[in-house]
Amino acid sequence: MDKPFSTTLDLRDLPAPEPLVRALVAVDGLMDGAVLCVLTPMRPEPLLEQLRSRRLAYSIAAHDGGGCAVTVWNEHGPAVD
After folding, report:
1. What is the rounded distance in angstroms from the CA atom of residue 40 to the CA atom of residue 3?
2. What's the rounded Cα separation, in Å, for the pair 57 and 33?
C-alpha cells in the first residue's frame, strides 16, 4: 500500500497572524489522502476551530523542538496517530 503524501510546515518563527494564514492556505489545498503536519509556537486554538469548521480530522501533540505539532488530514484520507 502506498504511503499518503505528507508535508511538514514549520511556522514556529513567524509573527501572528502569519502562522494561521499560512496554515489555512495549506489546509485548503489538502488533497484526499494527503497529510499535513503544522508546527506552531503554541497551541493554535484559532487553527483548531477552523479545522473543525472545515470538518477536517486532526491530532495535536507537543513538539520536541518546542510548540505544538498539529497533524491534519482530509476526512477521505487515512487517520494518523
Report:
1. 25
2. 12
